[in-house]
Amino acid sequence: MSLDTEGDSLHHYPERLSLVQLATPDGVWLVDPLALPDLTPLAPVFAEHSPVVVVHAGDNDLSHLKRRYGFAFRSIFDTSIAARFLGGTSLGLDTLITAWLGITLPPSRQRDDWSARPLTPAQLDYAAADVRHLFALKERLTQELSARGRLGWVEEECAALAAQIVPERVVDPDAYLGVKGARELSPRGLAILRELWALRESLARAADRPPFKILSEEILLAIARAAPRDTAALATLPGVTSRVLGRWGQALAAAVERALVLPDADLPQWPHRPRPRIPGVVSRRVEALRKWRSGATERIGLEPGVLLPNRIIGQIAEAAPRTVEELASVEGVRRWRAEAFGGEIIAALGGS
User: Fold this and answer.
1) CATH no. of 280-350
2) pTM of the entire predicted model
């Protein structure tokens, strides 16, 4: 079975799952989650070892289904992961299907509002094509992976994707600190930005529109810098159009005023996160592993982040394994890395 999903994050807020596409070699089914009370009848299909569920770059799709419906996945094959392990760098589904199958997919409809009904014929064609050709693509990629001795590597990575636990989304009270340019603000400016961020969130939910379509982060930052106390001052700022002013001018001015009257003790501060001190011996191991990876990526034909991600390099350097067995026990290393490259990795560490 192949699987894909479509959401409406460009048009609504919070995002809704708007379509689930399923296919077998015998046909395609388009499931409308907006019209159904729930999707729990699909749970046992995904939870079984067979059939294998074929996805493409399925991390987001699986996360949606796990989080929203509590689905568990037993057996996954991700064609994007497979292509990466064949040295692919252009991993779009349309690119891979053209390269491996000689088929041209319908034009992209990713920016469509998939919650609108009825779906257009063009949307139906696009949605079906996204799952119809995944079986043939899987077969071609599997053949090539087997020929290169890498099929087991991909199967292990796909098993990890299937088993990955997806935590519930929680509201980050410090999300506003992620605005580009926020570090340049004073504590008072950060307080304004915090108020504006919260206002935009409430406006987006009330309007059922993505926050970026309410006010851009650039506008939020400009207001936080200028600290305008009335709509006349607001109107002088870049991006604050007559439309913005007419809809939200009073609310924006009120948000600024709330921040301006805060006591100094209540002003936000940047979280103090001291950089961890890395012992010299660990740093030397990191450098040794990076040096090994630099040579191995070209020789093996895999991107550095596939062969040995930085996160895993750090964990190996901390653990300092002396044998392949100890290496295999380091979290995230995976069995395939230990079996295929364990000896080389241990030798690289031995020279550090």
Assistant:
1) 1.10.150.80
2) 0.92
